[in-house]
Write a structure and sequence with these properties.
Order of helices and strands: HHHHHHHHHHHHHHHHHHHHHEEHH
Oligomer: single chain
Number of helices: 23
CATH superfamily: Amino acid/polyamine transporter I
Number of domains: 1
Strand content: under 5%
Radius of gyration: 24 Å
CATH topology: Amino acid/polyamine transporter I
Largest sheet: 2 strands, antiparallel
Number of strands: 2
Mean pLDDT: 92
Length: about 525
């Protein structure tokens, strides 16, 4: 019987409803999705890395191509989230379209990588958030103590201590309810967006000579070099840095740093049971996020690239930051601050960027907790994980699990060499491919759900969602190639095998759960024959 058919049937779920409530409105959802793409962090990576380590790469072209590749994926998630507006995201879509084992394999892979990636943005708060903030204030005020504080935040212990505090605070906020979080999120994102706008505006009308003068003025004294900017160019050249003619391969490979952020524009899909009017809002909010963020990135890289020049940007990332008197390479926001020459502008730029630095983390914790809750409702995870606070409507056990795993991942990230920033994105692409296949097959696997949805349009006899799914699957293949080919991705043969092993681990979990439940006389596969109630 097709999922969603309204007929009497025995109770097959461990619980009839999630216990979550719809609290997220239009701005809540847009801010949630934009937060997970972290336009500030995306720009920081792209500007810091492409001119230096992707010879002949062009940041604007990388951005345009990557946006075009991600748009089909955003539409796939938007269509499916509109059709099946439940928490758990691809777990619901894939398990109901392709089958429970496939759904668990696809989604548990996502949850595992959110465990692992919990350590990354929590560390970024210190390295890319507070370190540049305090360093910049120290340089503008001549206060060496502030510079030292900023440099400490970029050390392993600085990142770890601050990250533990951040994770603990977020878990507490989420346990108090999503309304509280949305109020905080919607306030802080205003400062973050203002930071991005100011950072871009400062570069208007400026040239490489202006940037070099600003670097000499603010970094020269602490580096002990009178003409630091020219020293940077000379030292980088001695170490092997050189500009190269335009290269399509470098331009495409650099998309890995854009995709790292922008591919997660679908964050609201995982809180589907908490979104108001999801059949319309989910449908347009995800592609709108891609277009808005993509446009912001494109404008900024054009301005920064023209003002600072690819040669200086690349050289700055090549030299040892210790030679500059810093513990990490200055971000483009720090260059913008120097270029402004104004303490208030510098404060607004670096203060607002703090909220971009960890912006992945809230979505990772919340979305992972909703996945865990969905597993428990379907009888795959133990009953403890399906507990939801009756008044606050929050899955506290699942949130605690995400918090603990994130702290463990943080320790691994900052104290060991075993986890690089890009190594798990190939694994996410495997899940995105499963979601794309589900979109392709939805009209035939769940015809009733498809025909009664708001996305039942056709081009001739072919469903639009099928066409979009095909485009999304192709784009996933292109990005998988990029991550396997990119020398900075960390995708060694060992890590490739690890990614595949994590992807397959959900199958093992599902069949163990099925065996355990069968011994109790319960067939958990029955729960996947209908869409969960709210």
């Amino acid at each position: 019987m097709a999922a969603g058919d309204r007929v009497a049937r025995p109770q097959v779920f461990e619980r009839r409803a999630s216990g979550l409530v719809r609290t997220a409105g239009v701005w809540d959802v847009l801010a949630y999705n934009i937060n997970f793409t972290s336009i500030g962090l995306l720009l920081a990576f792209l500007i810091m890395l492409e001119p230096a380590f992707y010879p002949g790469g062009n940041m604007a072209v990388s951005t345009i191509v990557c946006v075009l590749l991600i748009l089909p994926l955003s539409l796939v998630f938007g269509y499916l989230a509109s059709t099946m507006p439940r928490s758990g995201g691809d777990y619901v879509y894939v398990s109901r379209v392709l089958g429970p084992a496939w759904g668990m394999m696809s989604n548990f892979n996502t949850t595992m990588w959110w465990f692992f990636y919990g350590g990354v943005p929590s560390a970024f708060l210190g390295r890319y958030g507070l370190a540049p903030f305090f360093r910049t204030l120290g340089l503008f005020t001549g206060n060496r103590a502030l510079i030292d504080v900023g440099n400490w935040f970029a050390t392993p212990w600085g990142m770890f201590i601050l990250g533990v505090v951040l994770i603990s605070l977020l878990v507490y906020i989420f346990s108090r309810g999503m309304r509280l979080f949305f109020r905080i999120q919607n306030t802080l994102i205003v400062f973050a967006i203002l930071s991005t706008i100011l950072s871009a505006v400062v570069f208007i009308g400026k040239g490489p000579a202006d940037v070099m003068v600003a670097v000499n003025r603010y970094l020269g004294p602490i580096s002990g070099k009178a003409d630091l900017a020219n020293w940077i160019l000379g030292n980088a050249t001695e170490q092997g840095f050189a500009l190269a003619p335009f290269s399509w391969q470098s331009t495409l490979l650099a998309m890995t740093w854009i995709y790292l952020n922008l591919a997660f524009m679908q964050s609201s899909a995982y809180i589907g049971s908490e979104v108001k009017n999801p059949r319309r809002l989910q449908l347009w909010s995800m592609p709108a996020t891609v277009v808005a963020v993509g446009l912001g990135v494109l404008i900024t890289v054009l301005l920064v690239g023209r003002a600072a020049g690819y040669e200086f940007l690349g050289a700055l990332s090549w030299v040892d930051p210790a030679e500059l008197g810093l513990t990490s390479t200055p971000l483009y926001t720090e260059l913008a601050s120097y270029l402004s020459g104004n303490l208030v502008v510098a404060f607004l730029i670096t203060f607002g960027f703090i909220f971009w630095s960890y912006a992945w983390l809230p979505g990772q914790i919340v979305n992972g907790s909703r996945n865990i809750l969905a597993y428990a409702i379907d009888g795959i995870f133990p009953a403890w994980f399906r507990k939801v606070h009756p008044r606050l409507h929050t899955p506290v056990p699942a949130l605690l699990t995400m918090g603990i795993m994130s702290i463990l991942a943080l320790a691994i990230y900052v104290f060991t060499p075993y986890f690089a920033t890009l190594v798990g994105i190939f694994g996410y692409i495997l899940t995105f491919s499963m979601v794309s296949i589900s979109a392709i097959l939805l009209p035939w696997r769940l015809p009733t759900v498809f025909e009664t949805s708001t996305v039942n349009q056709r081009v001739g006899r072919v469903p639009v969602i099928t066409l979009i799914g095909v485009l999304s699957l192709i784009s996933c293949g292109i990005m998988a190639w990029a991550y396997l080919k990119d020398p900075l991705s960390g995708m060694t043969p060992t890590m490739t095998i690890f990614n595949i092993a994590v992807f397959l681990s959900g199958l093992v979990i599902y069949y163990i759960a099925k065996w355990v439940q069968a011994r109790r006389g319960v067939d958990i596969s029955l729960s996947f024959k209908e869409i969960p109630e709210e």
